[in-house]
Amino acid sequence: MVQPFEEMPGILSVLSGYTGGTTQNPTYEDVLSHQTGHTEAVEIIFDNDVVSYRELVALYWTLTDPTDAFGQFQDRGDNYRPVIFYDNAEQAQVATESKAQLQASGRFDFPIVVAIEPSQTFWPAESYHQGFYKKNPTRYAQSSQMRHDFLAKQWGEK
């Protein structure tokens, strides 16, 4: 999720982390235990004069399998569930309408299961998780192959 958002004009910051759980300042190991209720997420700070929340949501749809409620590609489990978070009623409406439009498009054979939820406390992930695609380009490319294959099939991208 990080690279495509970081490369978008108007993005000020993309930070990997955890949200929605019960533990204060969780670690990756805490979240991976499936005992904290956290979801792995990215916090995106953006300049609304350059890029809109609507554009961020539109990009999100092209990066994920919105029909898979149990993870994303090789990342499996409740901590990888697909969610779009919002900060206010306008963002909630944008995300909800966008989800409905995608479902109505007929692009997917199964229901769109991405949750739309209010944002909660965001805990930044450990430093080794930040900028993973830059620090580990070979491993990132290998682990992303399933996602790239899916995107090519669904969206006609390479």
TrEMBL record:
Physiological role: Has an important function as a repair enzyme for proteins that have been inactivated by oxidation. Catalyzes the reversible oxidation-reduction of methionine sulfoxide in proteins to methionine.
Family classification: Belongs to the MsrA Met sulfoxide reductase family.
Domain Peptide methionine sulphoxide reductase MsrA: 2-141
Gene field: msrA
Enzyme class, broadest EC rank: oxidoreductase
Top-level taxon of the source organism: Bacteria
EC number: 1.8.4.11
NCBIfam families: msrA
Keywords: Oxidoreductase
InterPro entries hit by this protein: Met_Sox_Rdtase_MsrA_dom, Met_Sox_Rdtase_MsrA_sf
Presence of keyword Oxidoreductase: yes
Reactions the enzyme catalyzes: [thioredoxin]-disulfide + L-methionine + H2O = L-methionine (S)-S-oxide + [thioredoxin]-dithiol; L-methionyl-[protein] + [thioredoxin]-disulfide + H2O = L-methionyl-(S)-S-oxide-[protein] + [thioredoxin]-dithiol
Species classification: Bacteria, Bacillati, Bacillota, Bacilli, Lactobacillales
HAMAP family assigned: MsrA
Record protein name field: Peptide methionine sulfoxide reductase MsrA
Keyword Oxidoreductase among record annotations: yes
Pfam families noted in UniProt: PMSR (PF01625)
